[in-house]
Amino acid sequence: MNDGMMTVVQCWDDGVTTDVRVGEILRKHNAKATFNLNAGLHDAKRKPGWVFKGTDVVRLGLDEMKDVYSGFTIANHSITHPSLAKLPIDAARRDIAEGRERLQQFFGQPVLGFAYPNGSYNEEVMNAVREAGHVYARTTLNVPQPFPPDNAMAFHPCCHFRLDARICGRVPAWVTSQVYDKA
Q: Could you tell me the residue ranges of all domains in the chain?
């Protein structure tokens, strides 16, 4: 930290409607972020995704995604959000590579990052992510010191948000108050 300033690396998964609000807040504060998206799980219009602790989670429609994510980094989160380490490796390779290709085509920008769906990965999956052209991959393993990562294909975060908790005290208050207090 320098003069009270800090660097916060943040990423948001799954391409859901709460990303609209997150994007507005980030733009207001000139903050950068990465959105990890599943290219195969979005329809032309919004659609129900799942229920999390009694709250309906809704996936964004393709018709709005370019606007919602404009100015942010896009990372691959696979085509279908499977637990990749449980798939036959050829199926995992396809899900990873096709996800990256579709996102690059849709957004017209390089997709260099990957986030393991459900935190599921192993050596074969890490190799498939690298072979598909990604330069880093984020896990869900919370570690106290993420920089520099021991392996760019297993980049561990230093905090992990949940909809019902603020786990990392090093995140600026404007992030937690504006996203979680109004969710």
A: 11-180
Strands 55-59, 47-52: parallel, antiparallel or unpaired by DSSP?
A: antiparallel
What letter would DSSP give residue 161? -
Q: Is 39 exposed, middle or buried (0-12, 13-18, 19+ CB in 10 A)?
A: buried
**Residue 31, both tokens:** 């903050």
- Peptide bond before residue 110 is cis, with ω within 30 degrees of 0: no
Helices (H), the chain: 18-28, 62-68, 89-107, 123-131, 173-180
CB 84, CB 38: distance < 8 Å: no
Entry pTM: 0.82
Q: Under DSSP, is residue 45 helix (H, G, I), strand (E, B) or coil?
A: coil
**β-strand pairing of 113-115 with 11-13:** unpaired
Higher pLDDT, 91 or 179: 91
Q: Are 117 and 95 in contact (CB under 8 A)?
A: no
Question: 108 and 69 in contact (C-beta within 8 Å)?
Answer: no
Residues 48-53: what's their mean pLDDT?
A: 87
Q: Which CATH class is domain 11-180?
A: alpha beta
